[in-house]
Amino acid sequence: MRYQSKLSAGKIWDGRYAITQIIGSGGMSHVHLAEDLRLPGKKWAIKECVTTGLTYGSLQAEAELLISLNHRRLPRIVDFYPPDNEGYSYLVMDYIEGITLGSYMSSKAGVMSGTMILGFARQLLEVLQYLHGHNPPIVYRDLKPSNIMITAQNELMLIDFGIARSYRNGGTEDTEKLGTVGFAAPEQYGGGQSGPLSDLYGLGALLLYMATGGRYSQWQSGMDRHLNGSVPTKLIPVIQRLLRHHPEDRYRDAQSVWSALAGIGDEDDNSVAELQPTSVRNKPCIVAVLGIAKGLGTTHTSLAISGYLSRLGATAWVDLSAEDSPVFHRIRSMVDVNEEYAPGREPGPIFEWNGVHYGKRPDRGGLDRYLEGDYRYVVMDLGVGSFEGALEEFARSDIPILIASGADWRLEELVLWLRRSGLQNHAKWKVGLPMASRTAVKLVQSVFKEGKVYGLPLQSNPFKVSGEFEALFEDWVHGIPENISNSKSKKFFQKKKYYID
């Protein structure tokens, strides 16, 4: 990279991120490892790019693309900082702990085992099917060893979406010829438009790369004889077909490749396994409820929406309002939980009632571990945001719900709160005004250039939602992708070790 980085070890960036080291460089970007000062123990990867009039659009497109994606083999992007006066832009995303496939191959002597190659191939097919399953399909376009991370448990993560793009129906050629020589499909360099079949070529190049110990990534005359004896015999024609010059001569989609791999390595099993759809979100939809002041019904609203969401899928409610909040224990004392407690023992942190799982505020800095699990929705009661990191959790949630007063004489309070918080209201925000008049709702909506304002009707019992409240919540969750996981598992926030933390 010909531009010097503004970040270095020991520097505190944006008052929040402590830079510890640089972990990658290339082209017009650096990637730094940073520790989160507001969420102790949390690590992020910060991608620093120098943007110009020609590259800013690409960076913003990468940010918007990553924000829309959610798959266990893809990193999340959690923040995007547009270019400063010197053209430096920043993406804050999950830090993936592990080594790249390229580094792994360099450190290994000899050819990778056929079992491991097949395992990695199926993991890559999972994420390719997810990307290609979008409408229009998302084409990664740069499958190569340095863009694939291997965790300590041999799980693959696909990183760096710098040249990914949505497939353009009717297009005949790519605007830019991008990709990595040796791994990019021929059509990426002229004569056609890159599409899902281009990624299948990249998959074939990676399989050949692994099968030859990193020596080859392009099919050559006599390659089948070279591979014979080093990999499963049935894998050789699969690689050859993936690497054909013309896209129409390759497999038609990821499922077809998965079917071709079925039974390889197990000659007694001739059944064809179906590639399970991976378009479901692997993380729950996060609903954050935050009040601008005490006594406005923030917890009441969070409990009501939890009950409503539990009808749509597995739902959890978490009391994050304050360390000494009595709400969790009050609810716990109201219900009959089949569990015995020894005298003086702290009640368990989790219980289930009426289809909703209830949990209390975790230890400081431990919020992330509560966001993993087999749930469709997680509702966070943030109270008035009195703990460190509350505003960030609110802003990053999928459905941020802000509760303000509906009284005419307190409407200015919301404007003042916004100024003090430093938050910029977003189109996904929902602002609830309890018992507000139509005039009050219209007045607040006129102030909000983004987001939507609602008057909250009277609902005396938050555990029995019906009528106007039900219609309101239906509007709030409208537009959330249907591919969110809909599992009904009883496990509460089960920690999954994907080495993203």
Can you describe what's shown?
With 501 residues, this protein is an alpha/beta fold. It has three domains: 12-94, Phosphorylase Kinase, domain 1 (2-Layer Sandwich); 99-261, Transferase(Phosphotransferase), domain 1 (Orthogonal Bundle), CATH 1.10.510; 285-335 and 347-476, Rossmann fold (3-Layer(aba) Sandwich). The chain is 27% helix and 19% strand. The chain has 13 helices and 19 strands. The protein has helices at 56-68, 101-107, 114-132, 196-211, 223-227, 235-242, 254-261, 298-309, 327-334, 390-396, 411-421, 438-447, 467-476; strands at residues 12-13, 17-26, 29-36, 43-50, 77-81, 88-94, 99-100, 138-139, 148-150, 156-158, 165-166, 285-291, 315-319, 350-353, 356-360, 377-381, 399-403, 430-434, 452-456. An eight-stranded mixed beta sheet has the order 14-15-13-16-12-17-18-19, sandwiched between helices. The chain is elongated. The protein starts with 11 loop residues before the first strand and ends in a 25-residue tail after the last helix.
| CATH topology descriptor of the largest domain | Rossmann fold
**Which strands sit side by side, in order, in the main sheet?**
14-15-13-16-12-17-18-19
Output the structural class: alpha/beta
Give the number of helices. 13
CATH homologous superfamily caption of the largest domain:
P-loop containing nucleotide triphosphate hydrolases
Report the uncertain regions: 166-179, 266-273, 276-281, 338-348, 481-501
| Helical content (DSSP H or I, runs of 4+) | 25-40%
Estimate the global geometry from the Cα principal axes: elongated
Domain tally: 3
**So what's the CATH class of the largest domain?**
Alpha Beta
Give the terminus-to-terminus CA distance: 28 Å
In this structure, how is the largest beta sheet organized? 8 strands, mixed
Radius of gyration: 25 Å
Quaternary structure: single chain
Number of strand segments: 19
Tell me what the CATH architecture of the largest domain is.
Answer: 3-Layer(aba) Sandwich
β-strand amount: 15-25%
Average residue pLDDT:
76
